[in-house]
Amino acid sequence: MTHKLSDGGQVLHVGMLARVEGEGGMHIEIHNNVVQSVKLNIFEPPRFYEAFLRGRKYTEPPDITARICGICPVAYQTASVEAIEQICGAETTPEIQAMRRLLYCGEWIESHSLHIFMLHAPDFLGFDSVIEMAADYGDVVEMALRLKKAGNDLMTLVGGRAIHPVNVKVGGFYRMPTKLEMLALRPAIASGLEEAFATIKLVSTFDFPEMEQAYEYVALRHPDYYAIERGTVVSTSGTAFPVREFPDHVKEFHVAHSNALHAQLDGAMYMVGPLARYTLNFAQLSERCKAAAKEAGLGETCRNPFKSIIVRAVELAYAFEEALRIIDEWKDGAAPSVTVTPRAGEGCGASEAPRGTIFHRYVLDAEGVIQDAQIVPPTSQNQPAIEADLREAAQSWVDMDDHDLTHRCEHAIRNYDPCISCATHFLDLRVDRS
Amino acid sequence: MTEAPALPKLAVWKFASCDGCQLTLLNCEDELLTIVGAVNIAYFPEATRAVVAGPYDVSLVEGSITTPEDAERIHEIRSMSRSLVTIGACATAGGIQALRNFGSVAEFRSIVYAHPEYLSTLDRSTPISAHVNVDFELRGCPVDKNQLLEVLASALQSRKPRIPTYSVCVECKRRGNICVTVANGTPCLGPVTQAGCGALCPSFARGCYGCFGPQDSPNMAGFTERLRGLGMSDEDAVRIYRTFNAGAEAFRAESERISPSKEDAAR
């Protein structure tokens, strides 16, 4: 919805943003062709997870925190088990870590293919939804559904189901999938890998609005692999610290127009997500992924948020490669979990959710009862960057008519694949002109 | 579009929730193109910018009511919907956010937010049926894809959906699972929980944790005795009754009956 103000100003307002997870909107005010204010409104109702985690047992966070988000439950499960294992001094085995990564590859595949094709591509191709896209791009939509299904099938194999997997526990898994079960899924993963590379080519042909942002990028880094399930925190300004020091560096703020807390790293805004991971950890991608990225017109860093769709496609291919590697290297017989004995203490866990780094911190008493919990989801951390992009986009394309400008601003928000359900511990889009 | 008016109009609404149940609709990869051929997706913000005005033939409602605005909005949705189906534990029982019903929201708010005065929230998280008439309640955290398709088909065909209300134990027997409680002494909510997941957890060597809420005739007191016999403390029993279906009547009443907390007893 847009309207003119009596003083000649203009308001661009979108009450309910579409094709994002959760409830949010945008409000932009423009006076004399100068953007005055930009707000990403998050009105998703708060659910108070951090409050009701107090008094729960140390074994419960993977099941409970999964429910924060139906799109990225594994991100929550993984960060929570890592934090609790740290408190309890439990060391998991390489096999358990490999299985966590395999499950997480399933979530990256499912979430990235959902966002690339169903939420983001319609902005580039000029459709309201993937449903209308299907009439002109039937083959593409069918490929999208196959890719997404491969991710969901992988999550079902390891986790029992695609939404809120049941097989994750503190210390590992209840049951390890067998090599035979994995091999049954292998052909779908192998053909998904080829279709993921086709996806990189396809999205690289889209028209990308010109916009470069010099944000500080933050992501996890793993010594051996492109970080997914664990790592240490690194940033483009050279900051590096272990996950347990996260509370010393990141502070959250409560602002009036959002039910999601905003975050700052060492007092400054920053950004997490595919662009940050790609820019920080490009060297760890496979040679085939690097070559495909180059062919798609990406450098070793990516500063255009609209090109995040290409980066997601590269990560999609990488997740398929990793899934195949883990399946091929798997040998049956590993213990599904290690014993975790509760003890008093504080611990932090972090993992790379499809939309960026997620942090969990817990304090346990000697019986393993949770005394305090803190969860910092990626969209909270990205809110200031999303608002900065909105300001930049609204100003750069201020000459567009309200309809097109509103759409461009919505597109700028969807670049982040914002997950509002996650961030509210939501989004209302508006543009005011005068 | 000339063909659109002929198709029944489907709307998908969200209240306090994780988006997982509506995502289940998008997760019907093999059926999605058939679904969009059979219905007009008239309102589904997670999937489309396009909005077709009501009234709607079928409204799927996800999430629980937790704010004064939402308590108003659900009445508007009801008045625009021929059939209103609630999907998932949040919409049918209040969800995990119904844990606030056992505590103090003022305290919850101040734990999470520095400026609780910026928030608009109710003291209780309640299911949709506490506010408006509901045509069918589909259980699950999340809902099961095949059950969702059955409910959608039945709503379009104006018939009753075939959704069993017996316990998870029946599914376990059908699947040929060895009982995790009998064989391993693992506490399992299967006997008091409604089927629907396909006995997922016992198939993964763990006890059921109650995603589909209470089955139609659970013997809660007898079940609590069994948990005690397995060595579970009442404190832990309260915890397993109070998760995603904490607000469902049978689980709520039993958790309050055995809760050692005085604050709960006073309610």
Structure description:
The complex is a heterodimer of chains A (434) and B (267). Chain A is of the alpha+beta class. Chain A has one domain (49-380): Cytochrome-c3 Hydrogenase, chain B. Chain A is built from 14 helices and 16 strands. Mean pLDDT of chain A is 91; it is low at 425-431. Chain B is α/β, with parallel strands linked by helices and 267 residues long. Chain B folds into two domains: 4-156, NADH:ubiquinone oxidoreductase-like, 20kDa subunit (Rossmann fold), CATH 3.40.50.700; 168-260, no CATH class. Chain B has 13 helices and five strands. In chain B, helix 3 (68-80) links the parallel strand 3 and strand 4 (81-87). The radius of gyration of chain B is 20 Å and the shape is globular. Classes of the chains: A alpha+beta (434), B alpha/beta (267).
**Which CATH class of the largest domain in chain B is shown?**
Alpha Beta
Largest interface, Cβ cutoff 8 Å: A-B, 64 and 62 residues
Total number of helices of chain B: 13
Assembly classification: heterodimer
Q: What is the CATH class designation of chain A?
A: Mainly Alpha
The low-confidence parts of chain B are: none
Q: How many β strands of chain B by DSSP?
A: 5
Helix content estimate of chain B: 25-40%
**CA(first)-CA(last) distance of chain A:** 16 Å
Instruction: Give the strand order, joined by hyphens, for the main sheet of chain A.
Output: 1-2-16-3-4
Largest sheet of chain A: 5 strands, mixed
What structural category arises from helix and sheet content of chain A? alpha+beta
Strand content of chain A: 15-25%
Q: Say how many strands of chain A there are.
A: 16
Keywords:
heterodimer, A: 434 residues, alpha+beta, Cytochrome-c3 Hydrogenase, chain B, 5-stranded mixed beta sheet, 4-stranded mixed beta sheet, 14 helices, globular, B: 267 residues, alpha/beta, Rossmann fold, 2 domains, 5-stranded parallel beta sheet, 38% helix
